[in-house]
Amino acid sequence: MEKQHSYSQVKGVSTGTTILAVKFNGGVIIGSDSRASMGESYVSSKTINKLIQVHDRIFCCIAGSLADAQAVTKMAKFQLSFHSIQMESPPLVKAAASIMRELCYSNKEELQAGFITAGWDRKKGPQIYVVSLGGMLLSQPFTIGGSGSTYIYGYVDAKFKPDMSLEEAKQFSINALALAMGRDNVSGGVVHLVVITEPGVKHIVVPGDKLPKFHDE
Amino acid sequence: MSEEMFPEPEWLSEEVKTGTTIIAVTFDGGVVLGSDSRVSAGESVVNRVMNKLSPLHDKIYCALSGSAADAQTIAEIVNYQLDVHSIEVEDDPLVCSAATLVKNISYKYKEELSAHLIVAGWDRKKGGQVYATLNGLLSRQPFAIGGSGSFYIHGFVDAEYRKNMTKRESQEFVVNALTLAMGRDGSSGGVAYVVTIDKGGAEEKCILGNELPRFFDQ
């Protein structure tokens, strides 16, 4: 984690951040905070949206250098739309994740970004894939990332249950993000959530004053 | 860099740290302290069953983290100073006094030492108390966590702590928090030691690895 921070001062704008994705009964929720920081003391944006739509039912969220992440997602979006025209059907979530992985792995020396890809497809339903910094691809029922995620490992390990309902999953995500934002000084702002299910996609924003409050010493 | 046939084992040259997880919680009538049991030197585990909860007096304990040698030395010195103090005042010492003695050493030798002790106990004047003494600061708190493993459970303890828990609930809270931290932190592990201090005295318990609660594991 220390290496990432010093690197980000060289690179410029970084999303010191908290991102997560959770699978529930019938879909996935992908969520993030909204703060972009430069170095560790300047907030360059309070309301950035880190949830990028790469296809109708596939979203990505980015952690790490913002510039790298935007470049990679733009390229992935293009490749994915081309791929789905060739296949004449909506792309698989795994295809989207593989494209990100290819880009991350082949450029692993220059890039400093990790991704969570989540979405719904007809073949396997809701899925979450993690592409880590070096280019590893892993499928998981839920995942967290970004600098703020260290503070909520304990919480998500304790509270996650497979096959939650939409309401439970939403509450789980909002709580986890609020807790991380409360402890990590480079995460903050509002909570952005995107709920992806077969019928469609819904974007929910929870402003700072509506976030749950926990015991404060 | 020359290649050696039999390179010197890491634990001979690396500083011994209790990269660790420690936690102390007040409940209605006392405190519960908990710690893991792993001591590492670089990447090797040199002791997997160390008890990091050290008694400073009958009803005052401290939890050690950071450099193992520094933390143990501070605890021994304060143990001695508290004994002298309690003879002088002809009474059991206050938790606040113990914490202040720890703080004095941590602050005076701030540059040389790297240890964080959490002091917790019960006294007649204020009941159960928990003091954090990080780097020479003295702060009384309803609960405190420390060590490398504590980063992973900040969210969990923020969400789950409630004021006025019973003794049972506090013990469960401590064991859950330790288990979650040991599950994610490479420098924490082994068994969990739990000490419960109230009016009647201190009760030590050791919970083995296979008796710890299980959480969702893919």
Automatic annotation (TrEMBL), chain A:
Subcellular location: Cytoplasm; Nucleus
Source superkingdom: Eukaryota
Catalytic activity reported: Cleavage of peptide bonds with very broad specificity
Keyword Metal-binding carried by entry: no
InterPro entries: Ntn_hydrolases_N (IPR029055), Pept_T1A_subB (IPR000243), Proteasome_bsu_CS (IPR016050), Proteasome_sua/b (IPR001353), Proteasome_suB-type (IPR023333)
Keyword annotations: Cytoplasm, Hydrolase, Nucleus, Protease, Proteasome, Threonine protease
Pfam families linked to this entry: Proteasome
UniProt KW Transcription keyword: no
Predominant location category: cytoplasm
Family: Belongs to the peptidase T1B family.
General function of this protein: Component of the proteasome, a multicatalytic proteinase complex which is characterized by its ability to cleave peptides with Arg, Phe, Tyr, Leu, and Glu adjacent to the leaving group at neutral or slightly basic pH. The proteasome has an ATP-dependent proteolytic activity.
The protein, known as: Proteasome subunit beta
From TrEMBL, chain B:
Origin organism lineage: Eukaryota, Metazoa, Chordata, Craniata, Vertebrata
Protein location: Cytoplasm; Nucleus
Homology family: Belongs to the peptidase T1B family.
Record-given protein name: Proteasome subunit beta
Subunit and interaction comment: Component of the proteasome complex.
Nucleus keyword on record: yes
Record's function text: The proteasome is a multicatalytic proteinase complex which is characterized by its ability to cleave peptides with Arg, Phe, Tyr, Leu, and Glu adjacent to the leaving group at neutral or slightly basic pH. The proteasome has an ATP-dependent proteolytic activity. This subunit is involved in antigen processing to generate class I binding peptides. Component of the proteasome, a multicatalytic proteinase complex which is characterized by its ability to cleave peptides with Arg, Phe, Tyr, Leu, and Glu adjacent to the leaving group at neutral or slightly basic pH. The proteasome has an ATP-dependent proteolytic activity.
Matching InterPro entries: Ntn_hydrolases_N, Pept_T1A_subB, Proteasome_bsu_CS, Proteasome_sua/b, Proteasome_suB-type
Major localisation: cytoplasm
Keywords: Cytoplasm, Hydrolase, Immunity, Nucleus, Protease, Proteasome, Threonine protease, Zymogen
Catalytic activity: Cleavage of peptide bonds with very broad specificity
